[in-house]
Amino acid sequence: MNFEGIDKISPVPYYYQLEQLLREKIENGRLKPGDVLPSEAELCSTFRVSRTVVRQALNKLCQDGIVYKEKGKGTFVAKPKLQEKFIQRTYGFYQEMKEKGLEVESKVLEHELVESPARIRTLLKLPEGQKVVKTFRLRSVNKELVMFTTTYVRSDLCPGLEKEDLTNRSLYQLLWDKYRLKISYGHRTLGAVAASKYGA
């Protein structure tokens, strides 16, 4: 299997680059559920990095439920987490918590225009090459971190969305106020993951 290389000049840690490369292969469907990943030794040789770097990358993917390890057999791509179709209560997490009188905070870690991953194209029935706006946020309620959320929205329906500031702001309300888009249908993927450095 061919992999892009790690940028040794970049200030981004090697383990994070490797994690993202593997994650992209899985999200794009090139590595499918049940597929075995290259061994630690093979990854070390391919990317010319230490075993510590490889283990950090694999451990992060394990924490996120993307892969799992079987002793003596290797590391495998995990099955997708529980997917939940939702039609009712599609007014968003922010509004829901506010209506309950709770203090909501959102920290935006990623908000950009990207190529739609294969999994997202399938769920949203998008043509290949369709751009989407990806938003990755940390959501806190009453100062306590409760979830990480990653949202994908069709870019052709909301041009310029990636330039909007979504810090402590409802995405659903923005879609309505600026683009007159009301969410009536979507998919949620739910799963529990170990707290990462973002939640420390």
From TrEMBL:
PANTHER family: MANNOSYL-D-GLYCERATE TRANSPORT/METABOLISM SYSTEM REPRESSOR MNGR-RELATED, MANNOSYL-D-GLYCERATE TRANSPORT_METABOLISM SYSTEM REPRESSOR MNGR-RELATED
Example GO molecular function: DNA binding
Annotated Pfam families: GntR, UTRA
The protein's name in its UniProt record: HTH gntR-type domain-containing protein
Coiled coil: none
InterPro entries named in the record: Bact_HTH_transcr_reg (IPR050679), Chorismate_lyase_/UTRA_dom_sf (IPR028978), Tscrpt_reg_HTH_GntR (IPR000524), UTRA (IPR011663), WH-like_DNA-bd_sf (IPR036388), WH_DNA-bd_sf (IPR036390)
UniProt KW keywords: DNA-binding, Transcription, Transcription regulation
SMART domains xref list: HTH_GNTR (SM00345)
Protein source organism: marine sediment metagenome
Keyword Transcription regulation on entry: yes
Biological processes per GO annotation: negative regulation of DNA-templated transcription
